[in-house]
Specification:
Order of helices and strands: EHEEEHEHEHEHEEHEHEHEHEEHHH
Strand order of the largest sheet: 3-4-2-1-5-6-7-8
Distance between the termini: 15 Å
CATH topology of the largest domain: Rossmann fold
Structural class: alpha/beta
Oligomer: single chain
Number of domains: 2
CATH superfamily of the largest domain: Glycogen Phosphorylase B
Helix content: 25-40%
Radius of gyration: 21 Å
CATH architecture of the largest domain: 3-Layer(aba) Sandwich
Number of strands: 14
Strand content: 15-25%
Length: 374
């Protein structure tokens, strides 16, 4: 097959990056894989059957630029399938590129964009982002029914897509995200004046709802002064979060670690991993935390209910409920046997899932081939 991905991952152009290595494995299985992505500078990289095309363009005009470059490659190289990494801007660019050609449109859905949180002020704090997300839903409504193949990363997303587009798409195939089953070496957390250590990992963006964790910590800290929180990640919400920490009087209770590549190693020294996202497509860090053998508190998003069962493998709460988060933190502090059983059950569930999806690369290839079926 000759396949073209329309992506947005600058790490593709970093030699030795994990994403570059993963794309090489995809290219070997597919036959020939080309990828167009925004990049700091125009560039081409060719490694065997993998071809990377970096396009320098602003966000506003990137869909038009990516569509134009993709169409050129379709006609020049005889591309059979164009796969967009999302049904929004990249999906629109892919749809525009394949029009009038024999190439088939394939769409990947990594975000639970049909969650009501995706468009609400509770899921995204800034007004411009809420407007953009509402526009993205309209774009997806235009793109997805016109795709020859649709792939989701979780059953939660599959179910929501089939419900919304029931009469307009044949099927949605689920191909999980590829996650290594080996675990990073243990990494010590920086010294701090607390003995029960919570760890949050991820982009510092409004949809991650880290303020809910800070509110929970503020609520229980007077009764449990030994508790503290480490936050690993970076993003647009870093400054507001630091301001909130000061306002809540938690300066001595919260440590910001910045973006880390060794987050799973850090998990191994935490007493609990905590996630408060409004929505997730998959939730890779939940699987990584389970493999790191740390108890998990999470909102009911992503693969919760699919890989992990609430109150058996993880402690799950509704999104946006800081009081419920506080209750679960207290439960873990006070119940050592619960911490022990959650760790065992979550690791079993994660490894069972990974064992059943070991052929992710092959599943991806099979999914693309089915897109070519008449």
């Amino acid at each position: 097959m000759k396949v073209l991905f329309i992506s947005n991952d600058p790490a593709l152009f970093v030699e030795g990056s994990e994403v570059r290595a993963r794309m090489r494995s995809y290219a070997e299985a597919i036959g020939e894989l080309s990828i167009i992505s925004r990049a700091p500078k125009p560039q081409e990289i060719h490694e065997g059957s993998l071809h990377l095309y970096g396009v320098r363009t602003g966000k506003l005009f990137s869909p038009f630029t990516l569509a134009s470059r993709a169409r050129t490659l379709i006609l020049k190289q005889g591309i059979e399938i164009v796969s967009a990494q999302d049904p929004f801007e990249h999906g629109w660019a892919a749809l525009r590129a394949v029009r009038g050609t024999s190439a088939r449109l394939h769409v990947q859905v990594h975000t639970d964009f049909l969650s009501p949180w995706f468009r609400s002020s509770l899921g995204v704090s800034s007004f411009p982002m809420r407007v953009l997300n509402r526009i993205r839903v309209h774009i997806a409504d235009h793109v997805i029914p016109r795709a020859a193949g649709v792939r989701a990363v979780s059953k939660r997303i599959q179910s929501s897509l089939l419900k919304r587009y029931a009469s307009r798409i044949k099927e949605v195939r689920v191909v999980p995200i590829a996650i290594p089953s080996d675990v990073q070496e243990e990494v010590p957390l920086p010294p701090a004046s607390f003995t029960f250590k919570l760890l949050a990992v991820g982009r510092l963006e409004s949809e991650k709802r880290l303020p809910d964790v800070l509110k929970a910590l503020h609520h229980i800290h007077p009764q449990y002064p030994s508790i503290g929180l480490y936050i690993a990640g970076s993003g647009r919400e870093e400054a507001p979060l630091k301001n909130m920490v000061r306002e809540l009087g938690l300066t001595e209770r919260v440590v910001f670690l910045g973006a880390r590549t060794d987050a799973q190693g850090l998990m191994r020294n935490a007493h609990a991993f905590i996630q408060a996202s409004a929505y997730e497509g998959y939730g890779r860090t939940l699987v990584e935390a389970a493999l790191a053998r740390v108890p998990i508190i999470t909102t009911d998003v992503g693969v919760v209910g699919e890989i992990f069962e609430g109150y058996r493998d993880v402690l799950s709460v509704p999104p946006g409920d800081s009081a419920a988060i506080a209750v679960q933190i207290v439960g873990l502090i006070e119940d050592e046997s619960a911490r022990h059983s959650l760790v065992i059950n979550a690791e079993i569930a994660a490894r069972k899932h990974l064992a059943s999806s070991e052929e992710t690369v092959q599943a991806l290839c099979d999914d693309l081939r089915r897109t070519l079926a008449p």
